[in-house]
Target: Fatty acid desaturase family protein
Amino acid sequence: MAITDAAEYAHLCEADVELLGVELEAIRRDIENSRGERDRAYIQRAIAFQRCLDITARLMIAVNRSRPGWALGTAALATAKSIENMELGHNICHGQWDWMNDPEIHSSTWEWDMAGVSSQWRYAHNYRHHVFTNVIGMDDDLGYGVMRVTRDQQWRLSNLFQPFRSILLAIMFEWGIALQGWESQQKRAATGDDKSALTRALVRKVARQAGKDYVIFPALSLRRWRRTLTANVAANVLRNVWAYVVICCGHLGDGTQKFAPAALEDESKSEWYLRQMLGTANFRAGPMLAFLSGNLCYQIEHHLFPDLPSNRYAQIAPQVRSICARFDLPYTTGPLVRQYLGTVRTIFTLALPDRLPASDCDAPKNPAMVLAGGERSW
Model:
């Protein structure tokens, strides 16, 4: 059931919650004070690598006539797109690199390689999702409006189809994100002219994105245009599915708690920190997998410090886990496959009416969710 008081749920008194906030703020200050040339070099190398990989992949698709060459080029293009969207676009638009004052690598100027307008996404994601994480009726990412992910959401007959909706959402993820950002901005637009301007911006971005992948690059391939077109479609679908899997593991899997709007009443910064820790989950990843996921394998750390450089999350994670141990809080993590299968179980379970035995309760807690202090499984 949805939590109405995060501190009470975690069995923490007011003094403990405030101490928790103090310790997390200390981590923030340490990272902010140590940002420098190493971090600048990291993001510049990441951008250069992604662009080189993108160019190489497109040349392989256009020039290589063999099927293995096409498959390798398509996989490389999907990887380049994933890196651009997650490690670059997502994190840059969070303002993680604004401290550099680089006009190119800045949240206000970066436009990412996907259908949505980055400025529209920033409001839906940076504000609606990160401020109201997993709050029912306020966090638009909680089921994306097409899936029931907690028993506190009313069951409807249409929920029977949500396993199929989840597959469609994964395949079309960039388009779902684009519409979500547009709808969020439409709701806050003051005038009809503002709404029209938002619509025009989205149409322009969609036209540019579709034109690039589905018209210009295929046309440049001349007689091999079908080969390039199918490669671009496949790369976009692979990128969409990968982004969907990573994000679902962070918020819809076993052990991620959901909150009632009452949890926001008089919420302090320390209580906000606690809610982020309870509402998010990590998955285990080495450096390469972390890079490909935009370092969102550290979803807990990202939600605590969304505007700190993503390359620092691996450094922050042991400190956060240690804090969880001292305050007897769960640090939810596990292998990627197991974490994702937990989200699949939740989607299938809650597609059914609550009165049926199969949906008697939300999906059981993941055995990978461990209390860091004593390696206790739930």
